[in-house]
Amino acid sequence: MFMFGFQFIGAIEDKSSILDVVEIYWLIPIMMIIIPFVYFIRIKLMDKLVHGIDLKKINAELEEYERKELEQLNSATEAPK
Fold first, then answer.
1. In sequence order, what are the residues at sequence separation of 6 or more whose Cβ sits closer than 8 angstroms to the Cβ of residue 10?
2. How big is the CA angle at 43 (ends 41 and 46), to the nearest 5 degrees?
3. What DSSP state is assigned to residue 74?
4. Which candidate, 45, 68, 65, places its Cα nearest to that of 55?
5. C-alpha Rg value of the chain to the nearest Å
6. What is the pTM of this model?
7. Considering Cα of 39, then 45, then 46, then 47, what sign does the dihedral take?
8. Tens of pLDDT, residues 24-77
9. Where are the domains of the chain?
10. What is the per-residue pLDDT for 67?
11. How far is the C-alpha of 45 from the C-alpha of 59, rounded, in Å?
């Protein structure tokens, strides 16, 4: 959509004879920033709203497992004394 709009404006204001060659040099860096940002937002929304995945809850569970694992390691090393 963005690329089409960019080319449409370039076609309307035809001041140069090289239409697409120069515009693509402007378009590539812009799209390199916009596409990953939009894709990241889309993934976050899909995970949370469609799949019901809450990353904060997953991180809390992982921290709890790590804490329990450390407690088991500490109790196992302290027992032989």
1. 19, 20, 23
2. 110
3. H
4. 45
5. 26
6. 0.42
7. positive
8. 777 788 889 999 999 988 888 887 777 777 778 888 999 999 999 999 888 888
9. 2-78
10. 94
11. 17
